[in-house]
Amino acid sequence: MSIVSTTDLKRVYESGATEVKAVNGVSLSIEAGEFAVLAGPSGSGKTTLLNLIGGLDRPTDGSVHLDGELLNDKSDDELTRARLFKIGFIFQAYNLVPVLSAYENVQFILQIQGVPDSKHEERIMPLFEELGLSGLAHRRPGELSGGQQQRVAVARAIIGHPSIILADEPTANLDSESAVALLNLMHRLNLEQKVTFLFSSHDKKVIDIAQRVISMRDGKICDDHRKTQ
Amino acid sequence: MMILRIGWRNLWRNRRRTQLTMGAMIFACAMLVFSLGYYDGFLWSLINNATEKENGHIFIALPGYYANPTLEDACPEAISSQILPDVKAEIKGVCPRLQAYALLSCGTDEENRTQPAQIIAVDYQAELANSKLAGDIVTGGFLTGDEREILLGQGLARRIRADIGSEIIFFSNAADGSIASEILLVKGIFSSGENIRDSSLAIMNLKAAQQLLALDGRVHSHRLFLRDPMQAEEIAARLNASLKTLEATPWQSIFPQIADILKVWLGVQLFTVAIYYAAMALITFNTMYMAFLERMHEFAVMQAIGLTRRLLAVLILSESIIMATASGLIGTAIGACANFILFYHPIDLSRWMESITWGGSSIQPILFCVPSLLSNLLPLLAMILLGFAVAVLPTWRLYRLRPVEALREG
Amino acid sequence: MKHFLLAMLMTASMAWAGDSGGQASGSSELDAVALVRAVETQYQGERSHGKMRMHIKTRSWNRMLELEMWSEGREKLLTRILAPVKERGTCTLKVDDDIWNYISRIDRLIKIPSSLMGDSWMGSHLTNDDLVKENKVDKLYQLAITERVGKDVTITGKPLPDAAVVWGKIVYKIDTASLTPLLVEYYDEEDVKVRSMVFSEFKQIEQRWLPMIARIVPEDKPGEFTEMQYLEIDFSVELPRDLFSIKSLRNR
Amino acid sequence: MLWLKLAWRNLWRNRTRTLVLLTVITGSLAFVAWMLNVAYGSYEKMIEDAVRMGSGHLSLHHPAYPQERLSEQFFSGKQAMPLLANRAGISKILPRLYVSALARSSRDNRAIMILGVDFENELESNPLLQPSKTISGKIPASDAQNLAYIGTRLAENLRIDVGKKLVVMFQDLSGEITSKLYRVGGIFKSGVTQLDGGTIFVNRQSLATALGNSDALHEIAILLADRKELPEHLSQLQKAYVGHKDIAVFSWETTSRQIADAIKIDSAQFKFMIFLLYVLVTIGTVNLLLMSILERTREFGLLRAIGLDRRRIGGLIFCEATLLGIIGALAGLVLTIVLSLYSWHYGLDFSNMFGEAEVAGMLVSMKVNSTWEWDWMFGLAAGMVVVVILAAIYPVKKALRAAPAEAMRHH
Chain A: which residues have CB within 8 Å of chain D? Predict the structure, then answer.
C-alpha cells in the first residue's frame, strides 16, 4: 500500500511576467518502509515537490494522495492536522523553536496531538537514548551543534509516529562527519522501525545511502531506480 | 546627497512599520498642539472674562479710586492728551465708565419692588468695539445710545420683577448732592455667569448718566484694552510715569489669583509637553532601534564596502530626523487648524454645565482654543529634538560594531 | 395748649417743652429720666406745619434746599421740596417705620427698603434711619445729670446693656430756663466724639421756645455740616385727615 | 502548560524592546491613575469643604428657598428635627438661619448676610469657623447670645474691633424693621472677598428670637458619615418629609451647583487624557508585536509545518500580548500604589504655586491628599490589558496571512 502517490502533479509560479513550472507533471508513489531520495540540481523542483507532498503547498494541477487520502480538496486546517499526525518534517536549518529546550521541542508535538502529559516522558526519553541525545534534553537549540540540532529535529519528526518523514536537505549545513552519523541513524530507523523516509538532496552521501533514487530535472522525473542489495 | 536618498528610501522599505510610527508621532504632535491651544484658550477667556467686563486690561482713575469708589471722585472724560503716543500704539481701545449706586424700582405704586443696585454707565460704541459686555445679553438688546435705556442683570430683573420694556424708576443722589431721578425703560437683560454680580448690576448710557448725576464731561474710570493683555503691567508703569493726576492699575494686581496662574503657566505647558513626548519618545525609540538592529548585517556590508562610520551615522540620523520632522509638520498642521477652527467657532457646552466663578473671574462652559506661535513651534521643535535623541543610541551602537561579527550573524 | 419741638430735628435726642405755667417745671429738681419722659410724652398727638431751609456743605458740594414740612407726633412726617426748582415737588413721607419718596418730576413713588436705612437723606448728614427713629430714649439709655451750670443742665446717656444703638455715649446740654436743647453729642465706645448737633437762635413762638437753627457736624469729616433753619412754623394747625398717605402725595 | 512557557519566553527574546514597551505601559498607566487619585482627592476636599461651609451633603429647605433665598421662606425646626434624630449614617446636623441685613457702627454701615449658627456644633466641621481662620478675638461660645463673629473687611469698613458694638437692622418675619445689638466676639479672615466683607456669624437662637419665631430655620445642613450613601439617605429623607409641604430635601449637587460643574469640567479633561494614554499604548503595542512577528515569520512557517493551525498560532501571539498587558498593568498598579501611598499620606502642597484659591465662592485649600479610587485604578489597568490585546489583532492577522511554504523561505 503506497504511503504517498501523486498523479500528473503540476506547480507553476508567476514571478513577474514569466511563468516558472517548478513541478511539471509528476506521477510518483512511495511505499511504506522505503528510504528514497529526490535527487537533482537546485531549481529542479525537488523542494517544491516535497512541499506539495507534505501539504505545505497546493498544486496548480494534478493530485496528491497521502495514506490514501486526497490532499487537494482538504481545507487548510485539515491539511495542518494531516501534517501533524501523518508527516514528520526535517528542514535544512532552523528546525527548532529557539526558546524551547530540546526535550520541549519534541514534547511540543505530543502536546498538540493531545497525548496526556503523563505519557510524554516514557515516549521521549527512550528515543533520546536511541538518538544519543539523552544528555542534551534541557539544552536550548542555541546551545547545540548543527548535528545535534538535526538529531533533535529527527526525534521531533518521529515522536508522533508519522506515516512518512520528509527531509529537505537535512545535511546541507553539517560537516561531513556529523552528516554521515545522521544518515546512518536515519537508515537504522528505516531498517529497524520501518520508518518511511523521502529526502530531497543533492548531497552524494544521501544518494549513496538511499535505497531508491528519484532523479529530477526541470520539474520532471527523469530517472527512478531502486538499488538491488 | 546620496545618503539622504538612501535614508528616505530606507524609511519606505518597511512601509507599514514606518507609517505606523509616523502615525503615532503625528497623533502625539497634533494632540499636543491642540492641548496647548486649549490651555491658552482657557487662560485667555479667564483673563477676558475678568478684564473685559469689569476693568479692562488697565484701569485708569483717580488715585485710590479703585480701593473705595465714591461718586465725587470723577476725572475728566478726555484723557488722550495725557497718554504718550508710543503707548497709544499698544492700546486697542478705551472705554470710559461712570459708576454709581441707585435705587431701582419697578411696578405700580401699591405693589412696587425696590432694590439698591450698582450702576455702570458706558459708551456703548466703545464697548461694542472692545469689550464682551454686549455678548452677555440674554434677552432684548444692547444699548443703542438712547438716553432712556437701561440693561438689568438677570438676578436684579427677577428681584424687581422687571422685563423688557418695563418702566424702571431711577432714584439716587447726584454728584452735587441733588436728587437724581428718571424713568428708564428696560432695553435688555444680561447674564454674565456670576450670580452675585447679575443680581445687583444695571448698565446705562454714559451721556444719560452724566446728565442725571451732574457729572457732565466727567467719568470715574477709563478701561484700556491692549493688543496683548500680558503687557498690562509694563504699560501701566509707563502710563503712571506720564499721567499727572490719574493712576493706572494693571489687571494683574486686581486679579492676583489669575496672575499667579500666569506665572506657572509656562511651567504647566512644558510639563505637558514633557509628559506627551516622554511616552511618544519611548515608542518611537522602540521602532527605530529595532529597525536598526535588523539592519546590522546591512550596515556591516556597507562598512565592508567602504562607507565610513561617520557617514553611516549621518544615514541613521537623517532617517530619524526626516521621519520626526515630517510627522512634526503634519501633526502641527492638524493641531493648528483644529485650534483655528475652535478659535472662530467655539463649541458651546452650556447645556451640560453652568459657568463657574474662579479667582474673581469665571470659567465659561465653552470649548475654545487660541492658536499661538508658541503652541505651534514648541511641539514641532520638541519633535525634531526627539528624532535626534532617538537616533543617538543606534549611532553609538554603530561605533562599537565590528563588521565581521555582524556578517557572520546574517 | 402744650408745646413741643419737631422730633425729626434730633436723632434719639430729646426736646423739652415747658408749659405755659411759667418756670414751675424749670426750677423743680426733676431728675434726668423724668425730664426725658416728660418730653417724650409731649409729642403724642401734636401737629405742626412750617418751612425750613437746609444748607448742606460737603467735601465736594455746597447745596441750599427749601422745604415745606408737616408732622404729627413722632409717627408721621411729610416734607416737600420748594427749591431748587429742579427738585421742586419731591416729597418724603414717613409713617411709623416706613419711608417713601415721591418724585414729582417723573410722578413716581419709591419705598425705601430696610437695607437702605443707613443711606443719607437728600444728600444731608441725616440718615433715613434718623427720620424713622422713634425709639424711646429713656428705654435705651441710662440717663443721669452730670453737670449743672446755672440754668444749663448736662445729661449723659449711657446705653443699656442690650440697647440696639450704635453710640457708646450721648451728651445733652439743656437750658432749663427756656427748656430748649443747646447741643447733643454722640460718642463711640472709646469716648471719641463722632457727631454733634448744635442748636442756636432761640425764639419763642406761640409761647414755645424753639431753636430756629440746628447744625449737624460729622467730626470725622472736617468742614462738613448740614444746617437746618426754620423760616416759619405753626403748631396750631388743622391737618387734613389723609394728609400722611400715598394718595395725598400725588395731588400736592 | 508548554503553551504559556513558549509565550513567556517569546516575550523576552528581545529584552530591550519588551522592557521599553513595558515602561511605556507602566509609566503612562501609573501617571494617569495616580493623577486620578490626586484629582479625586482634590474633588473630595473641594466637596467636603464646600459642603461643610455651605449647605451639607443633604439639606432641608423651604422648597423655593435655594432659588430665591428670601428670609420669609423658612420652615419649623420642631417639625423637621425629630425626623432626623437617630438616623444611622448622619454624622452632623447643622440648623442655620440666613438673614440679609444692614450692619451699622458709629462710623459706617454695610449690607451683610447674618448666619445664625450653633457655634460648638459647627466648630467641628465648618472650615470657616476654625480657630486657624480667626485673626483676633475668638469664635463665640455656644451660649454667647449676643456675640458676633465677623469678617475682617467688614470690621475694617465699619471701623470696629473685638468687643465693639455692631447693630444689625432687618425685617423680621412679620415685615417689621427691627434692630439687634451684637458685640464683636471675633474676627476671621477667609480670603474669599464676599465672605470677609459681607458675612457675620451669630448665635442662632438669638437671631431666631429677633426674627420673631424661635423655631424658624432656613436650612438644616446634614453631613453624612460617608458620601457614597447619599442617594439612599436622599430618598429616605424625601419619603420622611413627603407630608410637610414647606420642607424639601436637596442634595449638594443642586445647592452648590458650581462645585459640581467645576468637577465635571475637570474630570472631562481627565477622560480625554485617558483616551490619549490608551491610543499611545495601542500604537506602541502594535509596533512591538508587528516587529517581533515579522522577525519570526520563518518560525511561524515552521510551526505551521509541524502542525499548528492558524487559530493556535494566533492564540500564541494573543497569549504573548495578554502576558505583556498583564505585566504592564500589574507593574503600573504597583507604581500607582506606591505614588498614591506617598500623596495619600503626605499630601501634595500646591499652595505655594497657587496660594489660596477661591472657586465658586468657596475657599479651596491647595493642599491635596489623594484618595484611593480602587475601582478606577483596576478599571484602567484592565482597560490597559484589553487595549494591548486589541492592539495584537492587526499583527496577528498579518502574521497568519503568509502561507507556510512561503513563510519558510522568508529569510
Answer: 51, 54, 56-57, 76-77, 80-81, 83-85, 89, 91, 94-95, 97-100, 104, 107-109, 111-113, 117, 156, 160
Q: Tell which of D224, D255, D286 closes a domain.
A: D255
Mean pLDDT, each 10-residue run in order, chain B (410 residues): 70 76 84 85 79 76 80 79 77 87 80 82 87 84 89 87 89 83 91 76 91 88 84 86 84 78 73 75 74 72 70 80 88 92 86 72 80 83 84 77 57
The helix (H) or strand (E) run that includes residue D50 is helix D15-53
**DSSP E strand stretches across B10-107:** 58-61, 75-76, 91-107
Last residue of a domain, one of D205, D220, D255: D255
Question: D88 and D73: one domain?
Answer: yes
The domain A34-58+81-226: what is its CATH number?
A: 3.40.50.300
Instruction: Say how far apart CA B4 and CA B6 lie, in whole Å.
Output: 5
State whether D42 and D80 are in the same domain. Answer: no
**Bond before D231 cis per omega within 30 degrees:** no
- Please tell me whether residues D209 and D343 are part of one structural domain: no
Q: Where are the domains of chain A?
A: 34-58+81-226
| Helix, strand, coil percent values for chain D (each to nearest 5) | 55, 20, 25
Of the candidates B261, B282, B289, which has its C-beta nearest D24's C-beta?
B282
**Residues D123 and D266 placed together within one structural domain of the fold:** no
Q: Which one, of D314, D315, D329, lies nearest residue D281 by Cα? A: D329
Residues D318, D235 within the same domain:
no
- Judge if ipTM > 0.90: no
Q: Among D9, D299, D309, whose Cβ lies nearest the Cβ of A77? A: D309
Domain span at residue D276?
2-51+260-410
Nearest chain D residue (CA) to A157: D306
The angle at the Cα of B333, spanning B327 to B335, to the nearest 5 degrees, equals: 100
Cα separations (Å) of D219 from D95, D96, D116, D211?
Answer: 6, 5, 10, 15
D305:A94 CB<8 A: no
Query: Please, which residues have CB within 8 angstroms of residue C75's CB and are 6 or more apart in sequence?
Result: C95, C96, C134
Helix and strand element counts for chain B (H, E): 14, 16
DSSP letter for B307, please.
-
